[in-house]
Amino acid sequence: MAAREWPFWMSPLSYWQPAHFPDTAWGGHAPFAFWLMDVLAPRSVVELGTHNGFSTFVFAEAAKRLGLDTTIDAVDSWEGDEHIGFYGDEVYRAVAEIAAADYPDTVRLRRGYFADVRPQVPDASTDLLHIDGRHFYEDVLEDVTMWRSSVRDGGVILFHDIAVTERGFGVWRVWDELSQQHPTFSFRHSYGLGVLAVGEVADPRLRALFDADDATADRIRADYERLGAAVTERVLLDAVPGQLAALVDSESWRLTRPLRVVWQSLKRSRGRGQPR
């Protein structure tokens, strides 16, 4: 049997599944991230905004399976913000536990504000920069302005949430401005992901991605939206047990227990009185 011929924008890695499924809005982009990690083979990944760690763990899992010597700096205050909400230390502890157990030589958690961490990252040292911090226009613009010089020529910057235009989100505005100045490709599913080239693009697969005509771009988006849907479904399914546990532990669940007991008793009584 002849080997399958893959289109330039896909490979067997596009079908990989993540090893961890914390709650995330980024789930649909895991298949493309696996492909991109193979194409770039980055030695350095920097992520601005990690939250529950899903995207960090996808990058780290790809590096692990591919045998890449990659360092992933996950930068976050782990305090939350106006868009995702504010939270306690439990989120950081959960991310740190997985990172230490599964990716001790790959993932470095840098807890702090982006501006404070920037001096610790040398210029032109980053192959892949992922921007997913606070989403107001001024914040995203500041992140790009401050961190652009950390990316080497030929590197890539990812922007999440470029398709969100409500609730004060401003990523789409920054993305529209940058798209006029750089080679880019955009996905619309899972709140949108922008892919931006920094300098000359060396890999022919990436060049083809950025140069794709409208028909080809539509095929690329459709393929990755389809593959991403399976990951998103798994994220949702994994979240259900935790949500149920939280419900059972809640005050409202305890207070309504007598009503549920009465209701179940009535259902059994009616069931015994009905002909079968």
Automatic annotation (TrEMBL):
<dbReference type="InterPro" id="IPR029063">
    <property type="entry name" value="SAM-dependent_MTases_sf"/>
</dbReference>
<protein>
    <recommendedName>
        <fullName>Methyltransferase domain-containing protein</fullName>
    </recommendedName>
</protein>
<keyword id="KW-0489">Methyltransferase</keyword>
<keyword id="KW-0808">Transferase</keyword>
<dbReference type="Pfam" id="PF13578">
    <property type="entry name" value="Methyltransf_24"/>
</dbReference>
